[in-house]
Each structure stands twice: as structure tokens, then as C-alpha cells.
């Protein structure tokens, strides 16, 4: 990834993904983990193509997603995203937390629930995040869960890939909810590779 702007001390130029997206120094807030949203969208705001977000990405975006996915002590995700993307069980040192009213996790449901580190939860997101283990949680959508988390002021950092596509259609945005949000965010870095733009934002009250 070619870094062209950073506020965290990284020198612009070619930077390894694991350096640009190193989460090891993130502070844990008092009553919950540091929460990092990891998402991709097209240049016109769509979060999926034919219902699949993976169709939007490229090699560097995939590398970023996997690095973040593996960096969290927990991964928080909505059941619809789990069903669409076919999530697999996480390693034993991580916890997968799926927000679902029905408990339906799709084709991999049996494998996911057979492990001791998958939790299926429902209810208010404030209560859910208070029970998340560890120091860092990676939030992987979907748009409805993202909107709930943003509205509750529970997201500290957003890692967003902009794919060089314009797809039109009716796809959702990265956050879709009834409440309009007005809180400004601070741009922490801009990276590029093969037409993709990689943005990292911090909440204005969060540190680097």
C-alpha cells in the first residue's frame, strides 16, 4: 500500500499493511474494547455487488481485511453478514460475536456454534459491547449494525476501503439507520493501490 497522508507518524511511501493498520497500541476505553469498523464501499457508496461485499475488493483490500480480522480480540458482526459471506470459526484466542434475533447463522451455523468461542447475542448494542472481551474489537457490519453502533457512539475508528467502481442500484451504504448522524471524524491516513483508496478515520475524541 502506498501511504500518501498520515497523522500517526508513518512516513508517506510504500508501507506494509501490518504497519499501517497496527492496532497494538489502541487504548481500551473504561467500560468496553476499542472498536474498529472495517468496511468497503464503491465510489458511489454501495457496500456490495450482487449481495456480496467480497466482489468489490482487490488484493490489498483483502490483505487489510484479513489483518484487521485477525487483530481483534473479538469480531462483532451481524447475522446477515455472516450468512452472506459464509463466516468460518475463529482461532481459539479470538471470540466471534454475532448479533442475531433468530440465531440463524447460515450454511456454517453448525461449525460456528460447535466452537467454544462463538457467541450469538441480541439486544441493545450498549449492553453487547460491555460484555466483549479483550482490548480491541473489530466491527465488520452490516450496515444496520454499523448504524446502531455509530448512533450509540461506540465506534472509535473506521477503516474504509473505497473501491474504484460505480454500481448504482439499491445497495446499502456502510451505515443505514433512521437516525441522521452529525459527529465529525478526523482523517488519520490515506493510502492507495491500483485505484483503491484506503482511509482510516478516528473519532474526534479518540487518540492516534
UniProtKB/TrEMBL annotation:
<keyword id="KW-0560">Oxidoreductase</keyword>
<protein>
    <submittedName>
        <fullName>Unannotated protein</fullName>
    </submittedName>
</protein>
<dbReference type="InterPro" id="IPR002734">
    <property type="entry name" value="RibDG_C"/>
</dbReference>
<dbReference type="InterPro" id="IPR024072">
    <property type="entry name" value="DHFR-like_dom_sf"/>
</dbReference>
<feature type="domain" description="Bacterial bifunctional deaminase-reductase C-terminal">
    <location>
        <begin position="33"/>
        <end position="192"/>
    </location>
</feature>
<dbReference type="GO" id="GO:0009231">
    <property type="term" value="P:riboflavin biosynthetic process"/>
</dbReference>
<dbReference type="GO" id="GO:0008703">
    <property type="term" value="F:5-amino-6-(5-phosphoribosylamino)uracil reductase activity"/>
</dbReference>
<dbReference type="Pfam" id="PF01872">
    <property type="entry name" value="RibD_C"/>
</dbReference>
<keyword id="KW-0521">NADP</keyword>
<comment type="pathway">
    <text>Cofactor biosynthesis; riboflavin biosynthesis.</text>
</comment>
<dbReference type="InterPro" id="IPR050765">
    <property type="entry name" value="Riboflavin_Biosynth_HTPR"/>
</dbReference>
Amino acid at each position: 500500500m502506498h501511504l500518501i497522508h498520515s497523522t500517526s507518524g508513518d512516513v508517506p511511501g510504500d508501507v506494509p499493511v501490518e504497519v499501517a493498520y497496527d492496532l497494538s497500541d489502541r487504548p481500551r476505553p473504561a467500560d468496553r474494547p476499542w472498536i474498529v469498523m472495517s468496511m468497503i464501499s464503491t465510489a458511489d457508496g454501495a457496500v456490495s455487488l450482487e449481495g456480496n461485499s467480497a466482489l468489490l475488493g482487490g488484493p490489498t483490500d483483502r490483505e487489510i481485511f484479513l489483518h484487521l480480522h485477525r487483530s481483534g480480540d473479538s469480531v462483532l458482526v451481524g447475522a446477515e453478514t455472516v450468512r452472506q459471506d459464509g463466516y468460518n470459526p475463529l482461532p481459539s484466542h479470538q471470540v466471534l460475536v454475532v448479533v442475531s434475533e433468530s440465531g440463524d447463522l447460515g450454511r456454517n451455523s453448525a461449525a460456528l456454534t460447535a466452537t467454544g468461542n462463538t457467541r450469538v447475542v441480541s439486544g441493545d448494542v450498549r449492553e453487547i459491547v460491555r460484555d466483549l472481551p479483550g482490548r480491541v474489537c473489530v466491527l465488520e457490519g452490516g450496515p444496520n449494525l454499523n448504524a446502531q453502533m455509530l448512533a450509540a457512539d461506540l465506534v472509535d475508528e473506521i477503516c474504509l476501503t473505497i473501491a474504484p467502481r460505480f454500481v448504482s442500484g439499491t445497495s446499502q451504504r456502510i451505515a443505514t439507520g433512521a437516525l441522521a448522524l452529525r459527529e465529525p471524524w478526523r482523517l488519520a491516513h490515506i493510502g492507495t493501490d491500483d485505484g483503491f483508496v484506503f482511509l482510516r478515520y478516528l473519532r474526534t475524541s479518540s487518540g492516534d
